[in-house]
Amino acid sequence: MNSAPSTNDAAFPLQIQEELLNQVRYWTTQAELKEKLNQEYDLKINEQERIIDALHKQRRLREENEERQKEDQWNLELQNQELRNQNVDLQAQLSKATHENAKVQKAFATATEQVEQLKDKEEKTSSQLEITKSRHEQDM
């Protein structure tokens, strides 16, 4: 019956205290590491969300551009068709005008020829009149 505490009995609470302190340090370090990892993951998640948002924006802009290009292409096709129709109309007008011009040129050539014939006839008639006048004057 030993009433005095043994050295082993006195060391036991110190060992427990030391072990508890070691475990507190270990779990504190683990909690700090977990917090640091959570912050890193949050940063990565935020960066990934920014990238995703940027990609969504790029896709939306690309789709809008594609839609605008389709609309522009459609409008160009319509304008092209209008220009083709105008070209056909203008070709028809040109053909008609060329045909009319040929008619006018032919009529002009005919009229010029007739004018020349009339001038020749007038000159002959004038000459004959002069000759006839002259004879008439001589006869008198």
Strand residue percentage: under 5%
* Overall morphology: rod-shaped
Rg: 58 Å
Q: Which class do the helix and strand fractions yield? A: mainly alpha
Distance between the termini: 202 Å
Please mark out the parts with pLDDT under 50 across 5 or more consecutive residues, or reply none: none
Number of helices: 1
Order of helices and strands: H
Could you tell me the number of beta strands?
Answer: 0
> Helix amount, in percent?
over 70%
Q: Tell me about the largest β-sheet.
A: none
Averaged pLDDT, please? Answer: 93
Biased composition (Basic and acidic residues): 116-125
Region (Disordered): 116-140
What does this structure look like?
The protein is mostly helical and 140 residues long. Helix content is 95%, strand content 0%. The protein contains one helix and no strands. It has one helix at residues 7-139. It is rod-shaped. It starts with 6 loop residues before the first helix and ends with a helix.
Could you write a compact summary of the structure shown?
Helix content is 95%, strand content 0%. It has 140 residues and is an all-alpha fold.
